[in-house]
């Protein structure tokens, strides 16, 4: 998280990953030891930084990400280019610390390395060298140079062995024959063929196959890792998310400022609407606008939420916590901010407009606004799961809300909506419908309005909401609020279900894609 400092990131991760059998002091001590091993002591109180703010360097971010994964001393650790962005000295120190840790804790480390220096290369026990989809070498790293030399590709003196291996088998820059009349095998192609055939018949290959057979014949058992309990994870994630939302201006603070400005404008435009003949329409317009404004503008915080979703995806796949823990912690941490951005702008618009002054009416008004903002947050969580790109997600979320808004019963009265799809599906699943009808029942309850210019005729609340707005009066306003609360829960449950379904569907989709790709390759070869 870009808003956290290095110290906060490592401390929160330690409390989430390490088991409850360890005390908090022991967890923090483990975190400090890990930070020292990766040489990040000087950057402990520096924010990580990201797309909108500067922070630690790319190399320090790489080391921090390694810190977060070696906290638990895992049995098996995958590192994707751990030396990228580091100079030769830093890469050597990082890899030597990881090597010592692996030897001390009995860890197996599998790393993809990018142009390692000779000192880093010597730290690896095994080497897997691939080219054009074939195995060039798989065995002890110390014997790789001898293998290349025995096949006519000796490593020149004073040259890094890893550079020599890559230069020998890299065919990206080989040119075709200048005459173009006859295809001539490239130098790298020839080297790859020689090395692949030589490795297949080598003793190194036989030893590797024998080791794999022995591993396959071994008795197998699941090795689990002790983690923190559900309550501990939820509390730590809630605290971390709360801090992130507080420091990220784009999450809620910018929205609050815009809401306050628009609410002031709205309050001045509809200032003291009174009880005249046009006041019913003015009240309904103001209620509809304030309800849709706070929900529609929720897409403004979508980019920040997408960043959170990326972190959630990585940490969940690494087994740090589950979907339910994330949903609960996100809901708990965001609720105070959603209350703030609903109550403050809502109060400004409510009292400037001159709606009903009783405190119970305002409390209901604020509760509906809060419910709508929480509901839209759940909707955008679902959109972020299906459409992870923030620009496409904003468009998708705005489109969904636009359709619901059109079928809320304000722009076209409910009885005039087309029956198929628009009324008997979208109208009843649109949360704007229940918010708007709750607003109408709350505002026009006990209200008497003038029905002509002289003020001799009056109109009661029942006649306004039934005849003018076609509100369903068979249930109270609290039922509408309860439906909104139920939709909040349903949207978050849908988020959990979609995550689970995608987890099951992705391997199957990848399998289908791989089979199709394999068939096309075979057809091309034929």
UniProtKB/TrEMBL annotation:
- Residues annotated as transmembrane: 252-274, 286-306, 326-350, 362-384, 390-409, 481-502
Keyword presence, Transmembrane: yes
Q: Which UniProt keywords apply?
A: Membrane, Transmembrane, Transmembrane helix, Transport
Q: Where is the ABC transporter family G domain?
A: 114-180
Top-level taxon of origin:
Eukaryota
Q: Where is the protein localized?
A: Membrane
In this chain the ABC transporter domain maps to: 7-84
Q: Name one GO cellular component term.
A: membrane
Q: Where is the ABC-2 type transporter transmembrane domain?
A: 234-444
Select a single GO molecular function from the record's annotations and give it: ABC-type transporter activity
**Which membrane topology describes this protein?**
Multi-pass membrane protein
Family note? Belongs to the ABC transporter superfamily. ABCG family. Eye pigment precursor importer (TC 3.A.1.204) subfamily.
Record's protein name: ABC transporter domain-containing protein
Record the organism.
Oryza sativa subsp. indica (Rice)
């Amino acid at each position: 998280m870009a808003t956290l400092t290095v110290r906060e990131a490592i401390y929160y991760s330690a409390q989430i990953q390490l088991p409850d059998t360890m005390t908090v002091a022991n967890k923090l001590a483990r975190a400090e030891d890990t930070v020292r091993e990766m040489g990040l002591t000087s950057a402990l109180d520096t924010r990580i930084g990201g797309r909108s703010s500067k922070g630690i360097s790319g190399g320090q971010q790489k080391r921090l990400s390694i810190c977060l994964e070696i906290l638990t001393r895992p049995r098996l650790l995958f590192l994707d280019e751990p030396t990228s962005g580091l100079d030769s000295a830093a890469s050597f120190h990082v890899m030597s610390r990881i090597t010592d840790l692996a030897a001390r804790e009995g860890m197996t480390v599998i790393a993809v390395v990018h142009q390692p220096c000779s000192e880093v290369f010597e730290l690896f026990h095994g080497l897997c060298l691939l080219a054009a989809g074939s195995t060039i070498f798989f065995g002890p790293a110390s014997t790789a140079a001898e293998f290349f030399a025995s096949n006519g590709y000796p490593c020149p003196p004073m040259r890094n062995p890893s550079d020599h291996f890559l230069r020998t088998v890299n065919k990206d820059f080989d040119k075709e024959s200048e005459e173009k009349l006859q295809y001539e095998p490239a130098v790298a192609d020839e080297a790859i063929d020689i090395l692949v055939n030589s490795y297949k018949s080598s003793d190194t290959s036989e030893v590797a196959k024998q080791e794999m057979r022995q591993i396959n014949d071994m008795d197998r058992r699941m090795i689990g890792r002790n983690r923190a309990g559900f309550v501990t994870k939820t509390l730590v994630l809630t605290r971390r998310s709360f801090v992130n939302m507080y420091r990220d201006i784009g999450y809620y603070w910018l929205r609050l400022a815009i809401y306050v400005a628009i609410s002031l404008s709205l309050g001045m435009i509809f200032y003291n609407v009174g009880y005249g003949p046009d006041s019913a329409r003015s009240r309904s317009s103001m209620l509809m606008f304030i309800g849709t404004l706070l929900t529609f503008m929720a897409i403004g915080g979508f980019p920040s939420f997408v960043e959170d979703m990326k972190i959630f995806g990585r940490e969940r796949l690494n087994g740090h916590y589950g979907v339910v823990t994330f949903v609960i912690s996100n809901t708990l941490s965001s609720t105070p901010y959603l209350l703030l951005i609903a109550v403050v702008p809502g109060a400004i618009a409510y009292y400037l407009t001159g709606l009903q002054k009783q405190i119970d009416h305002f409390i209901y008004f604020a509760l509906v606004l809060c419910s709508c903002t929480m509901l839209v947050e759940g909707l955008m969580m679902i959109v972020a799961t299906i459409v992870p790109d923030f620009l496409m997600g904003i468009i998708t979320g705005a489109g969904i809300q636009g359709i619901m808004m059109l079928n809320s019963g304000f722009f076209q009265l409910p009885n005039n909506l087309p029956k198929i799809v628009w009324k008997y599906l979208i109208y009843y699943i649109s949360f704007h419908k229940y918010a708007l009808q709750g607003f109408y029942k709350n505002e026009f309850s006990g209200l008497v309005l003038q029905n002509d210019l002289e003020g001799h005729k009056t109109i009661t609340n029942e006649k306004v909401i039934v005849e003018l707005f076609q509100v369903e009066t068979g249930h109270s306003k609290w039922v509408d609020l309860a439906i909104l609360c139920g939709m909040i829960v349903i949207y978050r449950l849908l988020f959990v279900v979609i995550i689970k379904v995608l987890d099951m569907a992705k391997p199957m989709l990848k399998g289908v894609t791989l089979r199709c790709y394999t068939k096309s390759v075979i057809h091309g070869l034929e």
